[in-house]
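Write out structure tokens for DUF2798 domain-containing protein.
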Amino acid sequence: MGQTKFQRFIFTLMMCFSMVLGMTIYNMFLNEGFHSQFFAHLLKDFWLGFIVALFLDIFIVGKIAKPIAFKIVNPNKDTKPIKVILSISGCMVVGMVLFMSMYGAIKAVGFSSMALKIYPSCVIRNFIMALPLNLLIVSPLVRFSFGKMFDN
């Protein structure tokens, strides 16, 4: 979404920030439960994950996911925008979950063989939350906010 390079960057920033925030809260709640230091840990843990995710989004996942999405749905003047949005969002979620689950596994147990052992369960657990979070909450809210910011 966005007409200029700057607008596309802002949209990516908003989507990435929102998804990482939501997924960090989700994973912290699953791993630690809610406790008195929850928000302090969230504030500390969020930023590195956000930087990693933004890098992955811009330089790797976005470059792979969007061409795949456009093969799934060939956008033209007759294509409903929702089909394009769902295709791109779905491909982005799959790519980001695959990469960020490895980030989470390494962060949890270190760079070891144990990270590879817990990786599949991390992928499943994260995909279960990431897809509905993206499709039902983050994408609509960010698209609405972005539209208001840039009068689209």
